[in-house]
């Protein structure tokens, strides 16, 4: 648990606001973010990069809420986007289009036009076909598109296979062996301007060695291009630095940056980084309330009002999120999460037991956490930790469930930054055939 979410007299706070007060005012499920935590993580990058020409492009897919984008925009961030919708969000939040890099394997003509009209910093191109399309669209608009090839270095990120992006079998980027030929091709296309090279090998990395291995392979390509007269303005080494969900020990931001800078010593290109999860993951929690306790022969279930539509990561990746009570009995520390084993039988009212924490969605895969030691009762409040990244941004309306409210805490003040959806909103754009 970060310093920005902490217990005071047995009650869990976000900065200086009790989470119970947020639940009472805005209901549950509810995402709660700490502005101070967001700011601190960004400034750790900025301070570590002082003296080096750089741009920190927040990976919008991690959490695209306008309030969060605005916090980073005010701090001077750029943005890494993967859709036209994300570009519109960045602009609506006060972001600078000239600090936007556009990644993604399937950019449509409409999205390319939108980005060219906005005058973004760079397109991170992921295929030969995309190079051709960019050139054609830019020609039709009388513009020149700034491009960087996303090169796949075939480096094992040692992370979950669903979020590993730098291997030969992944859909992302252009093959390392084909990169030089594609740069030669791009240099001849009249409506493209080569500006850099991009590399992103995956997410939730907890070691620096894959980053350094990828950087060294990219630098070797940069030298080959320079020998041919193709000089790059920037190197985009992506993001992917992990956070602590359970017992992971990812490197500190400063140590990670120091190793990258050491690998780049003597290089004059501008450095672009694309951190996402590391900036927002531990800056947010998901508040949820226990609806029922159900004690079975083999397992006990804590049925809460948050579900897989609110937080998809456990169902999608079997991802772990720590779950803690908002109010501790007798001001005790939260119980550790043990390995899975059978429940301890039916107990009335407030119970200390091993629970499957599950939601009301009609899917067996709808769970928030397995085999958690919790002392809870119906209507107890729980906080799902490390929920700031890929929580709200991946949420859905499955089972016609309105998406959660979002609250940002700033010191003693709580700001409602997204209203809870109403059911009527979910079908307002639909019609029946008469």
TrEMBL record:
It is an enzyme of class 4 (lyase). Substrate binds at residues 277, 313, 317, 363, 390. Pathway: Amino-acid biosynthesis; L-lysine biosynthesis via DAP pathway; L-lysine from DL-2,6-diaminopimelate: step 1/1. Transmembrane segments: none annotated. Residues 30-388 form the Orn/DAP/Arg decarboxylase 2 C-terminal domain. Gene3D superfamilies: Alanine racemase, Lyase, Ornithine Decarboxylase, Chain A, domain 1. Residues 38-280 form the Orn/DAP/Arg decarboxylase 2 N-terminal domain. Its cofactor is pyridoxal 5'-phosphate. InterPro entries: Ala_racemase/Decarboxylase_C, DAP_deCOOHase_LysA, De-COase2_C, De-COase2_CS, De-COase2_N, Orn/DAP/Arg_de-COase, PLP-binding_barrel. One of its GO terms (biological process) is lysine biosynthetic process via diaminopimelate. Keywords: Amino-acid biosynthesis, Decarboxylase, Lyase, Lysine biosynthesis, Pyridoxal phosphate. Coiled coil: none annotated. The modification N6-(pyridoxal phosphate)lysine is found at residue 61. Specifically catalyzes the decarboxylation of meso-diaminopimelate (meso-DAP) to L-lysine. Belongs to the Orn/Lys/Arg decarboxylase class-II family. LysA subfamily. Homodimer. This is Diaminopimelate decarboxylase. It comes from Candidatus Gallionella acididurans. The lineage of its organism: Bacteria, Pseudomonadati, Pseudomonadota, Betaproteobacteria, Nitrosomonadales. The gene is lysA.
């Amino acid at each position: 648990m970060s310093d920005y979410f902490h217990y005071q007299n047995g009650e869990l706070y976000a900065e200086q606001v009790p989470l119970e007060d947020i639940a009472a005012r805005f209901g549950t499920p509810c995402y709660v973010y700490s502005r101070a935590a967001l700011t601190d993580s960004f400034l750790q990058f900025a301070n570590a990069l002082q003296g080096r020409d750089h741009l920190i492009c927040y990976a919008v897919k991690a959490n695209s809420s306008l309030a969060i984008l605005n916090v980073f925009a005010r701090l001077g961030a750029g943005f890494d986007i993967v859709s036209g919708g994300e570009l519109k969000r960045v602009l609506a939040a006060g972001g600078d289009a000239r600090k936007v890099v556009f990644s993604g394997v399937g950019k449509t003509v409409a999205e390319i036009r939108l980005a060219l009209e906005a005058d973004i910093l760079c397109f991170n191109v992921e295929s030969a076909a995309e190079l051709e399309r960019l050139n054609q669209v830019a020609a039709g608009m009388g513009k020149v598109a700034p491009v960087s090839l996303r090169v796949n270095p075939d480096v094992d990120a040692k992370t979950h296979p669903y979020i590993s992006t730098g291997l030969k079998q992944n859909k992302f980027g252009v093959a390392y062996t084909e990169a030089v030929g594609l740069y030669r091709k791009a240099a001849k296309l009249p409506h493209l301007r080569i500006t850099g090279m991009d590399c992103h090998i995956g997410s939730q990395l907890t070691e620096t060695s894959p980053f350094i291995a990828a950087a060294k392979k990219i630098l070797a390509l940069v030298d080959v291009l320079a020998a041919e007269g193709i000089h790059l303005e920037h190197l985009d080494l992506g993001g992917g630095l992990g956070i602590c969900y359970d017992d992971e020990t990812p490197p500190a931001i400063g140590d990670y940056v120091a190793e990258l800078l050491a690998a780049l010593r003597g290089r004059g290109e501008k450095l672009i980084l694309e951190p996402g999860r590391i900036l927002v993951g531990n800056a947010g929690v998901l508040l949820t309330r226990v609806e029922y306790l159900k004690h079975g022969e083999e397992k006990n279930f804590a049925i809460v009002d948050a579900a897989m539509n609110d937080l998809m990561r456990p169902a999608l990746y079997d991802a772990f999120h720590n779950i803690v009570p908002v109010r501790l009995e007798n001001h005790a520390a939260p119980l550790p999460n043990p390995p899975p084993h059978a429940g301890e039988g039916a107990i009335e009212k407030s119970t200390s037991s091993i629970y499957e924490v599950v939601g009301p969605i009609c899917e067996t895969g709808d769970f928030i956490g397995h085999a958690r030691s919790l002392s809870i009762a119906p209507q107890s409040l729980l906080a799902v930790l490390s929920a700031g990244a890929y929580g709200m941004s991946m949420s859905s309306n499955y089972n016609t469930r309105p998406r959660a409210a979002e609250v940002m805490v700033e010191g003693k003040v709580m700001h409602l930054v997204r209203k809870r959806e109403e059911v009527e909103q979910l079908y307002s754009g639909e019609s029946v055939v008469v």
